[in-house]
Amino acid sequence: MKTKPGAAPSASAERVALAARVIVGVLLIYSGLEKAAAPVEEFMVVISGFQVLPEPHVRLFAHLIPWTELIAGSFFLLGLWTRAAAVVCGGLSLPTAAVSAGRSISSRGRP
Q1: Considering the domain boundaries, does residue 76 fall inside one?
Q2: How many domains is the chain partitioned into structurally?
Q3: What is the DSSP secondary structure assignment for residue 74, as one 8-state letter?
Q4: Which of 12, 27, 37, 72 is at a distance of 20 to 30 A from 19, taking alpha carbons?
Q5: What angle do CA 86, 96, 49 make, to 5 degrees?
């Protein structure tokens, strides 16, 4: 059943949105904590493996990404600035997805 534009979402839609927000928030917090607790050099190796950042920037991003995940995950979990948190999550996810897709496409046809 379609709702009118501007109508309030149904209770079930709100529950699904809440569940999704909580799941994404918990995953981001967990991911950020795992990275922040490990030596930064371990995450630098992972970032370097993507070969998308100049070497001088790898350390900076290895320090920033875990804390960005923690903050965005906390916002999701608490329901604060959820749209801004979603934009940040997209900013974290899109480069990884683009590199993975590019590698998948470029490896086709190889034995």
Answers
A1: yes
A2: 1
A3: H
A4: 37
A5: 145
